Amino acid sequence: MMKAQTEKVHIPDIAGEAEQVILGLERDNEGKPKITKSQIRKFLAAVNTLTNKVEDYRAKNGGAKELSPALGEQVKYLKVKFAYQAGRDSTGTVRELGEKGKIQERIDGIGLSVERYERFARFIEALVAYHKFHGGKD
Predict the structure, then answer these.
(1) Closest C-alpha among 97, 113, 138 to residue 54
(2) Average pLDDT value for residue range 105-131
């Protein structure tokens, strides 16, 4: 009889990663993250809009595991949306979030993978959640 081998499955800790990014951001005099929710909300809104499109695409395509090339282009375009938000921010806090959260690299790593996109979207949601949890300003 053969023994069943237990494989270790790596489960990414998206929440832990997001919390560490928020904890690593510059703080104000009260110890709260300097970045405000409004500074990142437009990017979050763009991610949520794309997530809805991805979910719709998957529903219409039998739970596809790969994005269409058109959706892949929209994923890449998120880099532009984030860069715009960072460029609008004179304090540098959005840029800091992008660097510490490796936003550009995470987007590049998605390719056409639905799974990697969903992981990215959950990471952005977790950033906003931990921002609020750790006293971030609205």
Answers:
(1) 113
(2) 96
Residues in the chain: 138
CA atoms lying within 13 Å on the CB side of residue 84: 9
Provide the whole-model pTM.
0.89
3-state SS, one letter per residue, for the chain: CCCCCCCCCCCCCHHHHHHHHHHCCCECCCCCECCEHHHHHHHHHHHHHHHHHHHHHHHHCCCCCECCHHHHHHHHHHHHHHHHHHHHCCCCHHHHHHHHCCHHHHHHCCCCEHHHHHHHHHHHHHHHHHHHHCCCEC
pLDDT of residue 4: 57
> What six digits make up the tokens of 116?
């990697």
